[in-house]
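Box 3.1 A note on notation
Throughout this textbook, protein chains are presented in two layers. The first layer is the amino acid sequence; the second is a C-alpha cell string describing backbone geometry. Keep the layers aligned when reading.
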Amino acid sequence: MSDLDDSTTLLTVNHLSAWYGRAKALFDLSFEVKKGEVVALMGVNGAGKSTTLKAIMNMMDRKEGQVIFNGQDISKAPSYQIARAGLGFVPEDRRVFSELTVKENLLTGRQPERYWPDGEAVFYWTEERLYQLFPNLGKMVHRPGGKMSGGEQQMLSVARSLMGNPYMVLLDEPSEGVAPVIVDQMIEMIIELKKKGISILISEQNYHLAKQVADRYYTLSMGEIVEEGVL
C-alpha cells in the first residue's frame, strides 16, 4: 500500500476563478479529488465544466486561486510541466494527430515510469496493455488518426494520455458526440482505470455515465459550484 492511501487528497482546488479575456467564467471554486477516486463535474453546456479542467491545466487567459497536485503547487506551472508531473488531460476536441497512425499517436504520449512516495510504482502502461483495454485500437495500429470515427479518436486520445503513466486523468466530456456503444465502452474503461488506482476528474452531462463510474459529484451552474454529493 502506498503512503498515499485511498483517503489521501491527490488534487486540491482552492478558490479558483478564471477568465476568457475580460469575461469571468469561473467563480471561486473549491473542491478535491482523493487518490483512487472518480469525481464528476456535472452541469449543462456553458456551466463551466470544461473551463474548470482547462484552468487546472493552466490553459486559460487568466486565473486566480491555488491548485495543489500530488503535494505540489501547480497553480502557475505551464501546461507541459503539469502533464509531466503526472496529470493527464483528455480534451473534449480530442486533439488526435490526424496524419500519424494510432501507434505513432500513442508514442507521442510516452513518459517514464512513475512512483508513489513510498517507492511503489504507478501502473505502467505499454502499447500491449492499452490494446487490451481498447481492443479496437489494437486492430488499427497503422490507421491514421484522421481516418478514425469520433468514438475511435476518443479512445485514442484517452490511450495516449495513459501512455504518460499518470497519477490522475482529467476527462473532458468523454461521451460527447459518440455512439451509445462507445459510451458503454467508456464506462467499462473508467471502471478499469479506477481498479488500477488511477484517479479521474470527469466533466460530463451524461448522468447515466456519471452514475456508473463516479464516487462523488459537483454540479456547476454559470461558473459556480451549486451542489455536491455522493453518486
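The domain at 9-230 is CATH 3.40.50.300 (Rossmann fold). DSSP finds eight helices and ten strands in the chain.
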